[in-house]
What we know:
3 strands, alpha+beta, elongated
Amino acid sequence: MQTWPVQDAKARFSEFLEACLSEGPQMVTKRGAEAAVLVPVQEWHRLQSAARPSLKQLLLSDQARAELSLAPRGQARRRQVTPLG
């Protein structure tokens, strides 16, 4: 991964972007410290989808169940069914 000082990334943005697209992620530094990374959009989408929990993880987590509010057992009201005819 190539490192670009923020001033160079700004001044040579087209070259910075082309390097990202052809070579992969590019690091940007600010005052010598790592500040950001430019990644190709396909890589960004892959990272985003990998960061989302699966349905199985959601169902097994305590957090998911905590958000579900159910009426106490026996408290639910049922619709009256009228006979046809």
